[in-house]
Design brief:
- It contains nine helices and 13 strands.
- With 379 residues, it is of the alpha+beta class.
- A six-stranded antiparallel sheet has the order 2-1-6-5-4-3. Strands 8-10-11-13-12 form a five-stranded mixed sheet, with helices on one face. A two-stranded antiparallel sheet has the order 7-9.
- A hairpin with a 2-residue loop joins strand 3 and strand 4.
- The longest helix is centred in the middle third of the chain and has 52 residues.
- It is elongated, with a radius of gyration of 36 Å.
């Protein structure tokens, strides 16, 4: 007894599936996008582009029950395409770790191929991926740049506000004192007149110092400053700076000087170094408590010269120390102590221009030490 069925349609379907499979393989083999077919979390097909993306050979990806998730480090789901209310395709950005240990980002479309490809009746998921590592790096750099621009804008606003305040105070002194002198100059004694003239003089000096600092900052920002080293006796150089600082402070502050080693003929730029040291010493004096001394220590070594400026002042909070050299930035514990937030930024710029290394250590309520290492070139 024979049982006969018409399988013409089945044969045609089988031939169509084989033709579709051949076309799929031809397309997959020649595309630049990596293609993975995944069944129950294991890769059952990978094209040559997938091999290039992961660093694993096609044999390694397919023959050893390779779990795609084992190389995935981060997933960022971006879009979901729905059909008849059911999610049919997802777009994800996936970070993977290649066989060579390199992290790279892939832009992937993930789609279920139910009824499209038959793998023993089991569901198959297709991942199509391209390398977007360069794009993600550029995106990260752009995000950082925008964040820095935002912070810089905030700092500039603070700077303008502080600058207005810094100028307003001495200008008010000049205006108030000159008005009183105009009305009472002939009635007051010479001593009283001179006291108000001294107030005007001090206020004008404050304004002049502010303008000098702003101009120097502008030159530093525009890269108009140059390093011009020449032989210098650093011990005498430091003594001269301390003498100037004593006169500027009215000899009300104590500045100790300690030197170790011979620094008779060291090649440095005296203008740059003078500004760096005077700024650091001025800050040490400004933020010191009472009449506690400030120390300038000079250490001459074989390969460099080290300056250490130590105070016993209010200190710099740890949260501020990473940003203390940024333009317009001021510590969070300065209260009403005047300043523009430019001094240390200029110091850092001048130190970099001179090829120096500057660092700090500080503890709130204990004090601060700035360390400047100058490369040594003896003549």
């Amino acid at each position: 007894m024979w049982s006969i069925w018409d399988i013409t349609e089945s044969r045609q379907t089988e031939q169509a599936l084989k033709l579709n499979e051949a076309r799929f393989r031809t397309l997959a083999q020649n595309t630049e996008a990596g293609i993975f077919l995944i069944q129950e979390n294991h890769i059952c097909y990978a094209n040559p582009a997938a091999e290039m993306l992961t660093g694993y050979s096609i044999q390694e990806l397919v023959d050893n029950n390779f779990d795609f998730e084992q190389i995935v480090r981060v997933k960022q789901c971006r879009q979901v395409r729905e059909q008849d209310g059911v999610a049919s395709c997802r777009y994800q950005e996936i970070q993977i770790l290649t066989k060579q240990g390199i992290l790279c980002w892939l832009a992937c479309t993930i789609e279920q191929l139910d009824g499209v490809l038959d793998f023993a009746g089991k569901r198959v998921k297709m991942i199509t991926a391209i390398d977007i590592t360069d794009y993600k790096q550029a995106e990260s750099e752009l995000r950082q740049t925008l964040e820095q621009a935002r912070k810089l804008s905030e700092l500039r606003q603070r700077f303008v506000s502080m600058l207005c305040h810094q100028f307003r105070t001495p200008l008010n002194v000049v205006s108030f004192s000159s008005d009183l002198l105009t009305r009472n100059f002939h009635q007051w004694s010479d001593e009283k007149n001179h006291s108000y003239l001294d107030l005007i003089k001090d206020a004008v000096e404050q304004i002049s110092e502010l303008l000098d600092e702003i101009l120097l900052f502008g030159k530093a920002e525009a890269d108009k400053l140059k390093c011009e080293p020449r032989p210098l006796d650093l011990k005498q150089f430091c003594r001269d700076i301390i003498a100037q600082m004593h006169l500027a402070s009215g000899k009300q502050k104590v500045i100790n000087f300690i030197s170790d080693g011979e620094c008779l003929s060291v090649s440095v730029d005296p203008k740059l170094l003078h500004h760096i040291l005077t700024n650091l010493i001025s800050n040490a004096l400004k933020y010191s408590v009472g009449k506690t001394p400030v120390t300038l220590e000079l250490m001459c070594r074989e390969d460099n010269v080290v300056f250490m400026i130590k105070d016993q002042g209010i200190g710099i909070p740890s949260v501020d120390q990473q940003q203390i050299f940024e333009p317009f930035y001021r510590g969070s514990n300065i209260d009403s102590i005047p300043g523009t937030g430019l001094g240390l930024s200029i110091v850092k710029t001048l130190a970099d221009l001179h090829g120096c290394e500057i660092s700090l250590s500080s503890e709130v309520g204990v004090g601060t030490t700035f360390t400047l290492k100058v490369p040594l070139n003896k003549h």
